[in-house]
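INFO batch 0412 | record 1 of 1 | parsing
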Amino acid sequence: MTQAEHPVTIKRYAGRRLYHAAIGSYLTLDVLTAMVEDDEAFVVREAETGADITRLVLNQITVERGRHG
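INFO prediction complete | emitting tokens
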């Protein structure tokens, strides 16, 4: 199976904390930005509800990149 068939799941907890369970570490938006640039497949889910918030996080990355050039 390819990574596209099984994207990495990132959970977002309170305070916008992003957790990558497979590596047991919290991530920053900079790390997710690098994952986007490296064309790594991932999905971001709200920890409490399981709702897919990937699009929201990608929008946040886009805004941050615009601010910092």
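INFO post-check: The mean pLDDT is 89.
INFO record closed
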